Amino acid sequence: QVQLAECGGGLVQPGGSLRLSCVASGSIKAVDWFRQTPENGREWVAGIVSDGRAMYAGFVKGRSTISRDNAKNTVYLQIDGLKLEDSANYSCMTDGSWGQGTQVTVSS
Questions:
Q1: ∠ CA 4-5-9 to the nearest 5 degrees?
Q2: For the segment 58-85, what is each residue's pLDDT rounded down to a tens digit?
Protein backbone atom coordinates (compact mmCIF):
# COMPACT_ATOMS: atom_id res chain seq x y z
CA GLN A 1 0.00 0.00 0.00
CA VAL A 2 1.40 3.37 -1.00
CA GLN A 3 2.33 5.79 1.76
CA LEU A 4 1.65 9.50 1.51
CA ALA A 5 3.32 12.49 3.14
CA GLU A 6 2.09 16.05 2.92
CA CYS A 7 4.11 19.21 3.38
CA GLY A 8 3.94 22.89 2.59
CA GLY A 9 1.49 24.10 5.20
CA GLY A 10 2.15 26.98 7.52
CA LEU A 11 0.99 30.36 8.71
CA VAL A 12 -0.04 32.77 5.99
CA GLN A 13 -1.81 36.11 5.92
CA PRO A 14 -5.21 36.50 4.30
CA GLY A 15 -4.80 36.91 0.56
CA GLY A 16 -1.59 34.93 0.51
CA SER A 17 -0.78 31.69 -1.28
CA LEU A 18 0.49 28.26 -0.40
CA ARG A 19 1.53 25.25 -2.39
CA LEU A 20 0.97 21.96 -0.63
CA SER A 21 2.73 18.79 -1.71
CA CYS A 22 1.59 15.20 -1.42
CA VAL A 23 4.53 12.86 -1.90
CA ALA A 24 3.83 9.18 -2.47
CA SER A 25 6.13 6.22 -1.85
CA GLY A 26 5.22 4.78 -5.22
CA SER A 27 3.27 5.49 -8.37
CA ILE A 28 -0.18 6.90 -7.87
CA LYS A 29 -3.28 7.34 -10.00
CA ALA A 30 -6.19 9.42 -8.77
CA VAL A 31 -5.42 11.62 -5.77
CA ASP A 32 -7.76 13.75 -3.72
CA TRP A 33 -7.07 16.55 -1.28
CA PHE A 34 -9.27 17.01 1.76
CA ARG A 35 -9.28 19.45 4.64
CA GLN A 36 -10.53 19.01 8.16
CA THR A 37 -11.56 21.36 10.96
CA PRO A 38 -13.39 20.71 14.22
CA GLU A 39 -16.22 22.94 13.03
CA ASN A 40 -16.78 21.51 9.55
CA GLY A 41 -15.30 18.05 9.77
CA ARG A 42 -13.64 16.68 6.64
CA GLU A 43 -14.30 18.38 3.33
CA TRP A 44 -13.19 17.34 -0.13
CA VAL A 45 -11.13 20.10 -1.73
CA ALA A 46 -9.90 18.90 -5.11
CA GLY A 47 -8.98 15.82 -7.06
CA ILE A 48 -6.83 14.85 -10.01
CA VAL A 49 -6.77 11.72 -12.12
CA SER A 50 -3.97 10.03 -14.04
CA ASP A 51 -4.35 12.09 -17.20
CA GLY A 52 -4.32 15.37 -15.28
CA ARG A 53 -7.99 16.15 -15.35
CA ALA A 54 -8.93 18.00 -12.20
CA MET A 55 -12.01 18.93 -10.24
CA TYR A 56 -12.48 21.43 -7.43
CA ALA A 57 -14.87 22.11 -4.61
CA GLY A 58 -16.84 25.27 -5.04
CA PHE A 59 -15.14 27.04 -2.16
CA VAL A 60 -11.71 26.89 -3.86
CA LYS A 61 -12.70 26.87 -7.51
CA GLY A 62 -11.05 29.71 -9.37
CA ARG A 63 -8.32 30.24 -6.81
CA SER A 64 -6.82 26.78 -6.58
CA THR A 65 -4.78 24.55 -8.88
CA ILE A 66 -4.11 20.87 -8.41
CA SER A 67 -1.31 19.39 -10.47
CA ARG A 68 0.93 16.35 -10.56
CA ASP A 69 4.48 15.34 -11.34
CA ASN A 70 4.35 11.63 -12.09
CA ALA A 71 8.14 11.36 -12.23
CA LYS A 72 8.26 12.50 -8.60
CA ASN A 73 5.10 10.65 -7.48
CA THR A 74 3.89 14.00 -6.20
CA VAL A 75 0.63 15.90 -6.37
CA TYR A 76 0.49 19.61 -5.61
CA LEU A 77 -2.32 21.82 -4.40
CA GLN A 78 -1.85 25.53 -4.86
CA ILE A 79 -4.33 27.83 -3.17
CA ASP A 80 -4.29 31.55 -3.82
CA GLY A 81 -6.28 34.29 -2.17
CA LEU A 82 -6.33 32.40 1.11
CA LYS A 83 -9.15 33.23 3.48
CA LEU A 84 -9.48 32.82 7.22
CA GLU A 85 -11.90 29.99 6.62
CA ASP A 86 -9.27 28.08 4.64
CA SER A 87 -7.49 27.32 7.91
CA ALA A 88 -7.53 23.55 8.29
CA ASN A 89 -5.47 20.42 8.28
CA TYR A 90 -5.01 19.42 4.65
CA SER A 91 -4.41 15.81 3.74
CA CYS A 92 -4.24 13.77 0.57
CA MET A 93 -5.69 10.39 -0.19
CA THR A 94 -5.26 7.78 -2.86
CA ASP A 95 -6.70 4.31 -3.12
CA GLY A 96 -7.73 4.39 0.53
CA SER A 97 -4.35 5.52 1.86
CA TRP A 98 -4.10 8.80 3.78
CA GLY A 99 -1.24 11.02 4.76
CA GLN A 100 -0.88 12.65 8.16
CA GLY A 101 -1.80 16.05 6.86
CA THR A 102 -0.25 19.48 6.93
CA GLN A 103 -1.69 22.39 8.87
CA VAL A 104 -2.65 25.60 7.12
CA THR A 105 -3.39 28.60 9.29
CA VAL A 106 -4.61 31.81 7.73
CA SER A 107 -4.33 34.70 10.12
CA SER A 108 -3.38 38.35 10.17
A1: 140
A2: 999 999 999 999 999 999 999 999 999 9
